[in-house]
Description:
14% helix, binds FE2/S2 (inorganic) cluster, Ubiquitin-like (UB roll), 29% strand, two-stranded antiparallel sheet
Amino acid sequence: MYDFRPKVQVTIPQTGESYPCAIGESLLMGMLKLGRKGIPAGCVNGGCGVCRIRILEGKINQLGPISRAHVSAAEEAQGYTLACRVGATQNVRLEVAGKMARTFTKGFVGPA
Ligand code: FES
């Protein structure tokens, strides 16, 4: 079913991928629609920290609490956050920065 919500574009320079993310949708849910291996999805509720990202450019909005066990206040000030807990309100560039960053980029050969 088509999602009619307005969307922003999310770009990941690490792999050159980009995907549309609906306003109100988490950056992780949009990323999952890339439909490939290595997407850093775990608990999807801010508890495991596997979806840690760094916002390089653009504006995000918080959709739920972000555990300080996974992102300190100092790290948050540097752009780090959890992709399952934030959405975007304008186009965003991000990098995958958690435990799965290597898995995310390893073996990636680019969009078909
Ligand atoms: S998927 Fe577990 S914190 Fe985001």
